[in-house]
Hints:
The protein is α/β, with parallel strands linked by helices. The chain has a domain at 133-238. The protein has helices at residues 2-7, 22-29, 45-50, 65-80, 83-90, 98-106, 111-118, 121-126, 133-145, 152-159, 164-175, 178-187, 190-197, 211-223, 231-238, 251-259, 271-277, 297-309, 340-347, and strands at residues 36-40, 57-62, 264-268, 283-287, 311-321, 336-338, 357-363. A 7-stranded mixed beta sheet has the order 3-2-1-4-5-7-6. α18 (297-309) links the parallel β4 (283-287) and β5. α4 (65-80) crosses α6 (98-106), α4 (65-80) packs across α7 and α5 (83-90) packs across α6. The radius of gyration is 20 Å and the shape is globular.
Amino acid sequence: xxxxxxxxxxxxxxxxxxxxxxxxxxxxxxxxxxxxxxxxxxxxxxxxxxxxxxxxxxxxxxxxxxxxxxxxxxxxxxxxxxxxxxxxxxxxxxxxxxxxxxxxxxxxxxxxxxxxxxxxxxxxxxxxxxxxxxxxxxxxxxxxxxxxxxxxxxxxxxxxxxxxxxxxxxxxxxxxxxxxxxxxxxxxxxxxxxxxxxxxxxxxxxxxxxxxxxxxxxxxxxxxxxxxxxxxxxxxxxxxxxxxxxxxxxxxxxxxxxxxxxxxxxxxxxxxxxxxxxxxxxxxxxxxxxxxxxxxxxxxxxxxxxxxxxxxxxxxxxxxxxxxxxxxxxxxxxxxxxxxxxxxxxxxxxxxxxxxxxxxxxxxx
Length: 365
């Protein structure tokens, strides 16, 4: 990630939620008791999701201190709040008492995290799950673009889901209008997404069109997958979770995550810096988000080699491709085995649909 740090801005919250499907992640990593998982922190949801498995230790790292403040606040919410209260703080449920909920969590935060959130009262009152640049980008789409295309009633019809035949018919006859396609391609273009949603540096190694590929994947999400069971789609279109919650926010996972919070630690810096500072640690599972998207092929290969050196035999690496293709280079054929069948199977279930590929690779012992 040091290459990304040289080109991108990491001074504010980029992602106030994790936009990789934790259901897919947990199945792909399949962590077992005694395993050490190294995870990109992001907003914390997916690092916390891994704690739902008993006896698993999770080390979350991030270049961005603001992302670690998101993780800290979530961890404090699991300790201090009840499940329904945590959903209010995140923004998954309506609330008029988020400032009071934050005040209860604040005493558990580090000085740096409490200072960060104290400077963002508006984001707390609105729900901390909407506080990132990426979430603001989706809010612009939801409030400025979507009303030009579809009414609230039609959005509600889409999110009601139904059987696959009904979803396909609804999409083709009512949703997939010329205006939808035109404004979607405009809003999710490389130019606007880079400036309003992600960072121009994150497109450094992307070739070809962007919006058309995302539009094709969006059709899949609205037809092959059930919108009524998709919390990521629901947040994008409504600004909250309606009939579905991400893995870490579901009531059936709340107590197990809370019980295992002492197995979570976080570090500010890059993966390379963490590994250099802990040369004796051996990792069993890696949640790498889509970090290789931002690296040259050569730097990607070099980081893979460092990860392999820090891995136990049988360790797994899980990461996503969005627009820049990355998977094990031929030079590492004898050390890293693609788990293609499992990856393809899970990718078909991936509710965070805008990625083009899921990669699962196993360290050969």
